[in-house]
Amino acid sequence: MSYYFAIVGTQDAPLFEYEFGTSKQGHDGLSRFSDQVRHLNQFILHSSLDIAEEVQWAHGSMYLKCIDKFFDNYISCFVTGANVKFLLLHHPLNNTGGSGSRSSTAIGANPTSPATEEAIKLFFQEVYENWVKAVMSPFYQNNMEVKSPVFRQRVAAAGRKYL
Amino acid sequence: MSQPSVPSSGKDGGLRVPSNGKTIYHRPLNRTKTAEISQASFAYLFGEMVTYAQRRVKGVQELEQRLNVQGHAIGLKLLDLLLHREPPRSQHRPTNILALLHFIRTSLWTHLFARAADRLEKSADPENPDDYMIIDNEPLVNAFISVPKDMSSLNCAAFVAGIVEGVCDGADFPGKVTAHSVPEGEMWPGKTVFLIKFRSEVVEREAYLGKS
Question: What GO biological process terms are annotated to this protein in UniProt (chain A) (predicted)?
Fold first, then answer.
């Protein structure tokens, strides 16, 4: 399972991005995007913004769950109060045979299962808490890139913890 | 604006960390939830803010505009903070005008002034049917302000109007918010009406969402 996470501001410009892999079941937390598809992640992620902007008015929840799919790439979205979007692209590992029954219980083996939804929700909530802290800084202005290494560490920690 | 320049400490890419190693990310967000500040110190600070805004302005309108801008950034930040503090079950982004106004009247006002705003009204004027009004009988920010005669149309609650505008903008309901003094006899001499004029696209979207 590989993840690409981005925070997109109200002017559709990315404010933060981070790529990581699953840390569950003894994985090393590194992403496994091949060089051929890595550069597509940003396109796929940003193309789902249109859908996010439609879905966000259907109900008031912040977590919009999985909103888009492009081949094997699933996009989950979380909208903050100030309409900043957290987008997470998750790409399940290609099951290379063998332990089929075991890997099917892994988070993310089935990207739309309730367990995966819940794990991503917890991840988003933790990022949101840190996001509010970043935004509350008097030096932060709307739609400014977040460069803090502490914020990056926090997002990485949330990723390790839940995904 | 780029990032504020900070003297580099070498290690963390120019980020200066306090000696105890605690950054804003280590501090809990809810500790100050019920904390209150002294009204005297607020009044003093606000007085300075008005003085600051008054420098090099040509008229009342420009002064109010500056106060509005000072409040705008606060509104944007408060929107996310207050939503974050809501219990998870009622943690909803406002998706229609009424929900937004209700959020402002109760959550925002309670956070800022420890009470809800006095009334919420929809314009009865047939020419502007989509204007909304939040009414505060005695705005806290004006408690110690007496406006000089030659600036009689000034209402320093323009600052609060700016905060409200920030919340509306943040929630993607862009519009103009202005503060107007509407004294009501002996009872409420400082009564203030916050007039909210949403942009036409907001009203349009509201009508469209209401149908489906």
Answer: endoplasmic reticulum to Golgi vesicle-mediated transport
